[in-house]
Amino acid sequence: xxxxxxxxxxxxxxxxxxxxxxxxxxxxxxxxxxxxxxxxxxxxxxxxxxxxxxxxxxxxxxxxxxxxxxxxxxxxxxxxxxxxxxxxxxxxxxxxxxxxxxxxxxxxxxxxxxxxxxxxxxxxxxxxxxxxxxxxxxxxxxxxxxxxxxxxxxxxxxxxxxxxxxxxxxxxxxxxxxxxxxxxxxxxxxxxxxxxxxxxxxxxxxxxxxxxxxxxxxxxxxxxxxxxxxxxxxxxxxxxxxxxxxxxxxxxxxxxxxxxxxxxxxxxxxxxxxxxxxxxxxxxxxxxxxxxxxxxxxxxxxxxxxxxxxxxxxxxxxxxxxxxxxxxxxxxxxxxxxxxxxxxxxxxxxxxxxxxxxxxxxxxxxxxxxxxxxxxxxxxxxxxxxxxxxxxxxxxxxxxxxxxxxxxxxxxxxxxxxxxxxxxxxxxxxxxxxxxxxxxxxxxxxxxxxxxxxxxxxxxxxxxxxxxxxxxxxxxxxxxxxxxxxxxxxxxxxxxxxxxxxxxxxxxxxxxxxxxxxxxxxxxxxxxxxxxxxxxxxxxxxxxxxxxxxxxxxxxxxxxxxxxxxxxxxxxxxxxxxxxxxxxxxxxxxxxxxxxxxxxxxxxxxxxxxxxxxxxxxxxxxxxxxxxxxxxxxxxxxxxxxxxxxxxxxxxxxxxxxxxxxxxxxxxxxxxx
Length: 673
Fold this sequence. Notes:
The chain has about 675 residues and is mainly beta. The protein contains 9 helices and 37 strands. It has 3 domains: about 1-25 and about 190-290, no CATH class; about 290-460, C8orf32 fold; about 465-670, Jelly Rolls (Sandwich), CATH 2.60.120. The chain has an 8-stranded mixed sheet with strand order 7-6-10-3-2-12-15-14, with no helix packed on it. An 8-stranded mixed sheet has the order 27-28-26-25-31-35-34-33. Strands 1, 11, 13, 16 and 17 form a 5-stranded antiparallel sheet that branches. Strand 4 and strand 5 form a beta hairpin. The relative contact order is 0.09. The model is unreliable at about 1-20 (pLDDT under 50).
């Protein structure tokens, strides 16, 4: 998908590369002096709202009393708030993993705000009663708080420890974020009995990339059985420890840019996947899951696959009101899809599993649920009628891309239904009442997704496979009181989807009044109509007429694109930090036929032109023909791909500059004396 920010996969068992220790910031919790409020850095400028002074983390192992190991993650972060737009940096969220009754433990949380008043540092400590808890999914609980007494110029500081018995959940590390960072450091100490695959992303150079080996002794007690008169087992494990340390310094902010799914795909970061462990006197245990294993496990979960395999006899009566035995498979599927889409409201647009405490029958009766609740119900009802339906899990665009090889489940946040009729696949999402059968929102087209079934497979939902086709025609003819125009526009499907959502909250009269206001002259719209608004499988067609008052001016300046032209270049920035991602390809055609106004002649006409975008990536055509009594313009914009690398940004920007220039040409009519 992109060139510079490709994933690099490295095993821990690599040759050791010793790098001498280099300087690091002197940062100790609670030690703040007036000089710390003075920031001089090339990455901090007038656009910076806050700056991360230091972000230092570490992860190591310790023996526990459960016969195994515990991960101990520590973090210390210091941030300066530069202005009010940086106040969001004072809100800290800490995610904790949960599985059943087992939960990662947050310990030693401290947070302080420092303000410089009359040359003295005044500190305000966080009251732990101000820490709130939010369960965002089946497996994730978030502890959240806002540092107190924050104002412009404040320094905030927090430190905490997370203890985890989930050895697969070695904490990842993001070096970049919304604010510039002067120093970001992460160190992991891993006993050699464990192997982790390290997943690296990003194109920033490490200031320190160091690996060393030391020796450590771990004490492990096994008190898990806790039986009377049975002594606990006790292990002393003497092993080598691989120490890895990474530092990146003076990083600019990774701020969001237009036409981008998420910065998560491009920031410099590290992630870890447990692949194997070797406990003393025992054979190695392979822990790297594959998709067949993960899929089989998920189909056994009470909150995912198990309800899909059940008889669900409660559906018998419900489905009798929706389908009949005489219907074709496609008609049955359409009826079930329409019923769920029109009768069950989506209350949460993310999720992989059934919501806590609910089952499919609850969801059906309550008439609301999360995206996973609704689409898993859709799969179950399709299966109940003998249709071939399976759940598909994916990551939406704003959530980032999944790893192409490893089943890292934390990266998935959405569930769809894949239906097959005569081996033709239909991807269904019943959470949006305005979607047609077999249609998905652009956010779902984020590359690889996974079918979860007894025959798991990868499927690819690529934005390049979406094409937005729009065709607009305008016909201007002379009348007794000026010129009359007929406007017809066949919208693309996604623009139709947006219009349907808009008109669910706004009446059509107000919609057309807003179009009237957009005309430069006082034009009154007549014969307004919108076709196929309720036919969700079809694009919408807009019709209206309007009068164009040419007046009695000596010169008339007329933009033939009316309101359909691009007024400003959407790519304003001089440079691009990461690739441009458009939601879909497009093919937009605009045709205008105009009689020359009575009593006028063409004084000046636009110039025809064609611009190509990197050979076959796109093309823009602006063609004009004229005769003694009329003028015709045909304009076509065609974009053949959705992702453009950073090195192609200047070319893309210049391409749109040419479009804006040509589409804003005017016809000049001069009065015949």
